[in-house]
Specification:
- The complex is a heterotrimer of chains A (320), B (316) and C (451).
- With 320 residues, chain A is mainly alpha-helical.
- Chain A has helices at 13-23, 27-57, 74-80, 83-116, 121-129, 136-146, 153-160, 172-185, 188-199, 203-211, 216-227, 229-245, 248-254, 270-280, 284-312, 316-319, and strands spanning 60-61, 69-70.
- A two-stranded antiparallel ribbon of chain A has the order 1-2.
- In chain A, a hairpin with a 7-residue loop joins strand 1 and strand 2.
- In chain A, helix 4 (83-116) packs across helix 9, helix 4 (83-116) runs antiparallel to helix 12 and helix 9 runs antiparallel to helix 12.
- Chain A is flat and about 60 Å long.
- In chain C, strand 8 and strand 9 form a beta hairpin.
- The N and C termini of chain C lie far apart (66 Å).
- The model of chain C is unreliable at 24-38 (pLDDT under 50).
- The chains are: A mainly alpha (320), B mainly alpha (316), C alpha/beta (451).
Chain lengths: 320, 316, 451
């Protein structure tokens, strides 16, 4: 733990409060709060008040044009029975099932190769990172162009190896795999994190294993994987959250004023549904309730992953 | 999380990037891969994969110089060179009625720059408070900073919109940069890690020399933290450069748009999904314009991008 | 990169940013000053510059405003933009939107009833088609003035019919079994790929017409009750879908259709890629302008009893609540939908077509007086019997037009219906299950919006 607390014992509440108040006799305390002030004010205006407001809104029927009407838990009740909620969450889940393993595996594979080449590593790292600095709207346009069923280059490529390509952007079953593939293209950031983790694995571990005659697979399984497990875990959580909050790419490709004929339920992700309910149908109350459900879902997923992760993740610091 | 180790402090003093975990002593590789044969295979695989990663860029760049009928011909060198997609054609990107691309580019640059500058500076102030000062409530408020990291944007999006709407600031650019004045939890967290790596003795010495809290921050902490500040600026600038949702919610007049929203608008009016005629060559040219500035920035600051990302992974 | 380079890079960036920030603040201030001093301006949303029919009427309407300026930005109607404008109390004076959406907005109090406007400008509502007015009438009030009707008729490609050995009259929606047989005879596939479509039912777009033909109104007359999962509606969808299945499924069907050059000289009729399909009236003009040499026959879409029906819908003009210049808006509405404007615009198109020796296929509006004038005063046969016959069918068919009645959940109703049909086409749900779900969604939306 980085040293944070000034007191290490566990005093009672009264004692705590006393010390807390006593702190304000110090000039340092006042200076500290002066430094903190911008964030504190911002926290109140742009986090605390919005959260409270959002919680209240989720109990109302509010269209902005007309005044808010208190409806109790109706929004949440309606949500349970809303087929669109189920549909959207299923879409996110399906996307996650393709995208998360895809990104993690490709990123780890690239990082492992990059970690072993003697020269050219920096150049290739730059190349693999480039898609990461491409704006999501541009990525979505690339997706529409490259994955176009009849003229796109992806299907042209598949034709070369005599595989008939699907209609990626129009066939509901292929939309999510296609988007996930496009997401795998932006694998660079994840790869860089893996690469940093791989580089910090102490080489003597491998040397010892080599002396013991461990196979490459054993070395990977027993040394590499445990040693980089914090990075795996971090990327897993980040990628899962990304999959559940996906917006810009899918919205650009399938929704909005000018893409009417592209619009499809298969690309209705949860983030897009919230956006539509809030800003296209102006059901601010219902949309707030939907947003809170997303919050809970993300919390649950993270909590589960942390819990499972604790069993498998090896934190080097723990042993020191 | 691991204790901040001495070698990090050295790095920090030398002005290296984000308080990182200890550097590996040397890059030594397991024996089999030292063979020329193994290296050859690796390079071959990497080269092959690079083609996959770079091809979309090449495709777009090349398509942006093709006439409409040849956009999908998949040639790398355009058969008929057609720069009119950018200038002088009908339609051409820089000359579309109601789609002022140059203006959007300008908007994205100044909004992103201003917001990122604010976020960087203010986050540094707050991070310094958490790293250096000892005061009651520090753990509590730092916990709060970490907690806000977990909040999805979607929960805040609606009430924030209503707040800005209440003050008649919808359809202005203020909602896109004003929140930057208050710093951002993620960068506070990142920069605090960095400040923690600065040895306290440096500050004590300065204090004896007559520095006050502000000059300590300004004269000592900030210069050492320059790499972390650059990382913050770059990441935040990139986030703003990428953002579609906020401009989509807040902006209505085309003159106020940023590039992502502008690009979406061009896709909507020229693609075939809406009422467009399928002028893909124009859409593609606009995509190139939206992509190139980040590539230039990356060219200059590549090291910071990469090390910033790596630091994120370690600290998450 | 040397560190000096980096330093100057950073400095340059910062300096550049400062200039940019300063410049934009200056620009922003200039904008603020220019705003309120201008004279009265009619702000329109969702119309924008269009073809000659739109532009000529727009300039007619502008002339009726008595000198006020008009702001008419490009781009179609967007729900999100419109609602944001309403929320910010910074509304346009006039919106041009899909008539199916009018009642939804009216129910939410976003539009003003046009009763006063109609009175003040003495707009003769009797000259508008009743069906079109019903589409924009909510709780006894009219909320929009309708424009085009786009009547739907069947376009038969004579060459394909002859090639397949069927008569043109065989494309008859009256007799479902016979139509299906014709479909099978005309369509062509090649190893799982469709190379010619027999009869395209045009679902989901035209599904209300199939349902109506089978004797069910998908929405009750008051717009408050959805009948999407009525057995007759399910039967209609099952049948329409079977026409697509005959081609080997939606995938090959749609991917073939996506390769067409719909608006070009090499369109699917010119290239004999389809036997017949129901289509909006504007497509005759597309054919007349791009491939006037084609041989087509226009047939009415018939219900199962043999009577002609057609779905008519299009856009309309409405005034949002809080509009600053409702008077100007009202004048515009009257002028832009007046017979004189329609006639002038139609005349321009007629002249242009005549100059190029191409047939004129008429303009079909919700204004009966305008339609009559266009047909009687402007239209002339130009020796292309195929197109002339089409025009006489279109002129008479508007009379049999029906619409989906105004409904507070109109927009959601349409989405639910289209989504359901798309699920059926994708093969993920049966027609019954899909329409059951759509019924639930649509009814819930109606109930929620009508409060």
């Amino acid at each position: 733990m980085a040293s944070v607390a000034s007191s290490t014992t566990a005093p009672g509440f009264r004692e705590k409060a006393r010390r807390w108040a006593a702190g304000f006799r110090e000039r340092e305390t006042w200076a500290a709060y002066a430094f903190l002030a911008p964030w504190l004010i911002g926290f109140v205006i742009f986090t605390a008040i919005p959260m409270g407001w959002s919680a209240w809104l989720s109990l109302t029927d509010y269209s902005v044009i007309q005044d808010a009407k208190y409806v109790g838990l109706d929004n949440y009740r309606f949500m349970l029975d809303d087929p669109k909620v189920r549909l959207a969450l299923t879409n996110n889940l399906t996307f996650a099932m393709f995208s998360v393993p895809g990104v993690l595996i490709v990123a780890l594979g690239l990082a492992m190769i990059l970690n072993r080449v003697k020269w050219g590593g920096g150049f290739f790292r730059t190349v693999f990172y480039l898609p990461n600095i491409t704006p999501p709207v541009a990525v979505a346009i690339l997706y529409l162009l490259l994955f176009n069923g009849s003229v796109g280059v992806v299907n042209r490529g598949l034709e070369l190896i005599h595989v008939p390509g699907p209609f990626w952007t129009t066939d509901p079953t292929w939309i999510k795999p296609g988007l996930a593939l496009m997401n795998v293209w932006s694998v660079g950031g994840t790869m860089v994190i893996f690469l940093a983790a791989l580089k910090s694995v102490p080489p003597h571990l491998y040397e010892a294993a080599a002396i013991d005659g461990a196979s490459a697979w054993r070395r990977f399984r027993d040394i590499t994987l445990p040693m980089i497990s914090p990075a795996i875990f971090f990327n897993l959580i980040i990628q899962t959250i990304y999959a559940f909050t996906l917006f810009a790419e899918a919205y650009t490709a399938f929704f909005g004023a000018g893409t009417k004929s592209n619009q499809t339920e298969a690309a209705l992700f949860y983030g897009i549904y919230i956006f539509q309910e809030a800003f296209v149908n102006f059901r601010m109350g219902y949309a707030s309730a939907l947003a809170w459900l997303l919050f809970v879902i993300i919390m649950v997923i993270t909590a589960v992953q942390v819990k499972v992760g604790n069993r498998f993740v090896f934190y080097e610091g723990d042993r020191r | 999380m691991s204790e901040v180790s001495p070698d990090v402090q050295v790095q920090a003093r030398q002005g290296a990037i984000a308080a990182a975990a200890p550097k590996p002593p040397r890059r030594s590789l397991p024996r089999p891969n030292r063979s020329w044969f193994g290296q050859g295979i690796f390079l071959f695989v990497l080269a092959g994969l690079s083609v996959l990663f770079v091809y979309p860029f090449v495709w777009v760049l090349s398509a942006s110089f093709k006439p409409q009928s040849q956009v999908f011909d998949n040639r790398i060198i355009p058969k008929d060179f057609h720069p009119e997609n950018y200038w002088g054609g009908d339609p051409s990107v820089f000359d579309i009625a109601d789609a002022p691309v140059a203006r959007w580019l300008f908007n994205s640059l100044w909004l992103g720059g201003l917001e990122a500058l604010l976020v960087t500076f203010v986050s540094a102030i707050v991070a310094f408070a958490f790293a250096y000062f000892r005061f009651p409530g520090r753990n509590f408020f730092f916990g709060l900073v970490l907690a806000t990291l977990m909040l999805p944007n979607q929960v805040m999006m609606i009430p924030r919109y209503l707040i800005f709407n209440h003050f008649n600031l919808v359809n202005t650019q203020y909602p896109l940069w004003v929140p930057g004045i208050f710093g951002s939890a993620f960068y506070i967290f990142l920069q605090r890690q960095f400040f923690l790596g600065i040895p306290r003795e440096l500050f004590e010495a300065a204090r004896i020399d007559g520095d006050n809290y502000w000059t300590m921050f300004w004269r000592i902490a900030l210069p050492i933290a320059k790499p972390a500040l650059i990382v913050t600026f770059l990441f935040e600038f990139q986030a703003k450069w990428f953002d579609l949702l906020d401009p989509l919610i807040y902006l209505r007049d085309t003159n106020l748009f940023t590039l992502p929203l502008g690009l979406k608008t061009i896709l909507d009016s020229f693609g075939t999904g809406g009422g467009g005629q399928g002028d893909w060559q124009v859409i593609v040219a606009a995509t190139v314009i939206a992509t190139i500035p980040m590539i230039i920035l990356f060219g200059f600051f590549q090291r910071y991008f990469v090390q910033g990302i790596a630091a994120q992974g370690r600290k998450g | 990169m040397s560190s000096r380079w980096k330093r100057s890079g950073v400095l340059l960036t910062v300096a550049g940013l400062c200039v940019v920030i300063w410049a934009s603040f200056a620009a922003a201030q200039a904008d603020v000053k220019a705003g309120p001093n201008a004279g009265a301006t009619l702000k329109i949303m969702g119309f924008g510059p269009g073809d000659e029919i739109a532009n000529i009427r727009a300039s007619e309407a502008e002339a009726a405003l008595g000198g006020a300026a008009v702001s008419n930005p490009r781009g179609g109607f967007s729900d999100q933009t419109f609602l944001a404008a309403l929320a910010a109390k910074d509304v346009p004076d006039l919106v041009y939107m899909d008539r199916q959406k009018v009642a939804s907005y009216a129910a939410r109090g976003a539009l003003v009833p046009l009763g006063n406007c109609i009175k003040q400008q003495s707009i003769d509502t009797s000259q508008y088609r009743l069906a079109a007015l019903n589409e924009v009438r909510y709780k006894g009030q009219t909320y929009a003035i309708p424009e085009f009707t786009n009547p739907r008729t069947i376009i038969v490609n004579d060459k394909v019919a002859a090639d397949a050995g069927v008569t043109v009259a065989a494309f008859n929606t009256n007799d479902w079994a016979a139509l299906r047989a014709t479909n099978k005879k005309v369509l062509k596939t090649d190893g799982g790929k469709v190379t010619r479509i027999g009869f395209d039912p045009k679902i989901p777009e035209f599904f209300p017409m199939w349902a109506k033909a089978n004797g069910v109104n998908l929405l009750s007359a008051d717009g408050l009750k959805a009948h999407l999962n009525d057995p007759k509606s399910v039967a209609a969808l099952t049948y329409a879908y079977s026409l697509i299945q005959d081609h080997g499924g939606w995938g090959p069907f749609k991917s073939f259709r996506d390769t067409w050059d719909f608006f070009g000289a090499g369109n699917q009729v010119a290239k004999n890629q389809i036997g017949a399909w129901p289509m909006e009236s504007f497509y005759y003009n597309v054919l007349a302008q791009n491939s006037p040499q084609v041989n087509i026959t226009a047939l009415p879409f018939k219900n199962r009893k043999g009577g002609p029906i057609t779905l008519i819908t299009g856009n309309g003009w409405a005034i949002p609540k809080g509009a600053k210049n409702p008077g100007l808006a009202c004048r515009w509405i009257k002028a832009v939908t007046a017979p004189a404007s329609w006639v002038k615009a139609a005349k321009a198109r007629f002249d242009a077509q005549k100059r190029l020796n191409r047939p004129f296929t008429g303009v079909y509006t919700a204004n009966k007086a305008a339609d009559t004038k266009i047909y009687e005063d402007i239209y002339q046969k130009m020796g292309r019997a195929d197109f002339d016959n089409a025009v006489s069918l279109l002129v008479s068919i508007n009379r049999y037009g029906f619409t989906l009645p105004a409904s507070p959940g109109g927009a959601e109703f349409n989405t639910a219906m289209q989504d359901a049909i798309n699920r059926v086409l994708a093969g993920t749900q049966s027609p019954k299950a899909a329409l059951d779900q759509a019924q639930k969604e649509a009814q819930a939306a109606i109930d929620r919006n009508k409060r």
